[in-house]
């Protein structure tokens, strides 16, 4: 399923074969939380800008429109008209970040919907059942994302429970994949390493879940309050204990610099809302750092967002026009900015893969970071 093509130091160049197509790694997954990329971006757009994997969220789709409705519609791929791989996040992170009032027990978590306040229970089996109804390519195990600064004893207990939940996820996934009416009988399961910033807890957990022979392994609970240095340190310590012959996924990270640092440390999969969220606010990524189109200096700027960029926005429109759209609160402005940012990320991943193929990733990383730190204006 996962083929390690080559390595440069710890950096991995691989390909991951799934029932919905082959994923070339390292890869950035474009985040469409509720089965759509925020900013009026369609699946046809995603194909045009080189998206390999779309990521949707179990909790949000369970709440609305309901995973049973999506199953009746033939699964998430048919529902959103996307025939490439989809990864679904287990809902664990949302349960812990959105729910003010929640009760964690061994069985799972009871909390209230952020939409209408009705009571929801979610545990490992429920998360797997919802993801099975969605029929995603890759399902994530249900875990607790403990705060990065949580007390050591709390984190230890939380991680032990997360391991028990993972075992239950594995059993339930196997059962669901064997059912006659399952949407995707080839659904894959990734486990999640937790442990906040306690490297020894993380390493022990990595060793434990590595023995479970899962389809892939994620490092979760980072980029939630710790410094970049702490995050890189945890990756340095933990990734070597995850199987090199399986994909490694760093959840919810991050900036272009975070991705380059993650690749160097052996990460294959990334996802983050930054490119879409920043795009909707006129903050755009370029090879010479970020620009903010709301700045008055772009009012008469006839250049594209970035010279030489192949995205739909840069191929046709000026900074001045897109700035006007944003100021006028026209949806097209957001859409063009999001398309540009996602194209920038997807293109950067292609460049990273090409650099790894050529054995010059270290040189590429240095050049890219230098370039992004040197504004043209």
UniProtKB/TrEMBL annotation:
Its cofactor is Zn(2+). One of its GO terms (cellular component) is cytosol. It comes from the Bacteria. The keyword Metal-binding applies. Substrate binds at residues 89-93, 143, 194, 221. It catalyses: 7-aminomethyl-7-carbaguanine + guanosine(34) in tRNA = 7-aminomethyl-7-carbaguanosine(34) in tRNA + guanine. Residues 252-258, 276-280 are annotated as: RNA binding. Its EC number is 2.4.2.29. Belongs to the queuine tRNA-ribosyltransferase family. Catalyzes the base-exchange of a guanine (G) residue with the queuine precursor 7-aminomethyl-7-deazaguanine (PreQ1) at position 34 (anticodon wobble position) in tRNAs with GU(N) anticodons (tRNA-Asp, -Asn, -His and -Tyr). Catalysis occurs through a double-displacement mechanism. The nucleophile active site attacks the C1' of nucleotide 34 to detach the guanine base from the RNA, forming a covalent enzyme-RNA intermediate. The proton acceptor active site deprotonates the incoming PreQ1, allowing a nucleophilic attack on the C1' of the ribose to form the product. This is Queuine tRNA-ribosyltransferase. The gene is tgt.
């Amino acid at each position: 399923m996962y083929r390690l093509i080559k390595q440069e130091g710890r950096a991995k160049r691989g390909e991951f074969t799934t029932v919905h197509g082959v994923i070339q790694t390292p890869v950035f997954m474009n985040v469409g939380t509720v089965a759509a990329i925020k900013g009026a971006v369609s699946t046809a757009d995603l194909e045009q800008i080189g998206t390999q994997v779309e990521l949707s969220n179990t909790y949000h789709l369970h709440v609305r429109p309901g995973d049973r409705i999506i199953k009746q519609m033939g699964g998430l791929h048919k529902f959103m008209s996307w025939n490439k791989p989809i990864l679904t996040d287990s809902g664990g992170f949302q349960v812990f970040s959105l729910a003010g009032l929640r009760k964690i027990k061994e069985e799972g978590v009871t909390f209230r919907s952020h939409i209408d306040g009705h009571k929801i229970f979610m545990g490992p089996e429920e998360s797997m059942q919802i993801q099975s109804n969605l029929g995603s390519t890759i399902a994530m195990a249900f875990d607790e994302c403990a705060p990065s600064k949580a007390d050591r004893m709390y984190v230890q207990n939380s991680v032990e429970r997360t391991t028990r939940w993972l075992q239950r996820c594995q059993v339930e996934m196997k059962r669901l994949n064997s059912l006659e009416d399952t949407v995707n009988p080839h659904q894959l399961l990734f486990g999640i390493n937790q442990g906040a910033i306690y490297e020894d807890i993380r390493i022990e957990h990595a060793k434990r879940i590595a023995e479970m022979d899962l389809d892939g392994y994620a490092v979760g609970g980072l980029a939630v309050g710790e410094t970049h240095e702490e995050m890189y340190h945890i990756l340095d310590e933990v990734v070597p204990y995850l199987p090199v012959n399986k994909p490694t996924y760093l959840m919810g990270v991050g900036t272009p610099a975070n991705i380059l640092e993650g690749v160097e440390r052996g990460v294959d999969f990334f996802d983050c809302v930054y490119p879409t969220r920043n795009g909707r606010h006129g903050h755009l990524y370029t090879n010479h750092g970020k620009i903010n189109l709301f700045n008055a200096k772009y009012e008469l700027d006839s250049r594209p967002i970035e010279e030489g960029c192949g995205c739909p926005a840069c191929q046709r429109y000026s900074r001045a026009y897109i700035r006007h759209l944003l100021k006028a609160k026209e949806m097209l402005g957001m859409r063009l900015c999001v398309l540009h940012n996602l194209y920038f990320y997807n293109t950067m991943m292609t460049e990273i893969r090409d650099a790894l193929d050529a054995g010059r990733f270290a040189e590429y990383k240095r050049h890219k970071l230098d370039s992004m730190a040197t504004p043209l204006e």
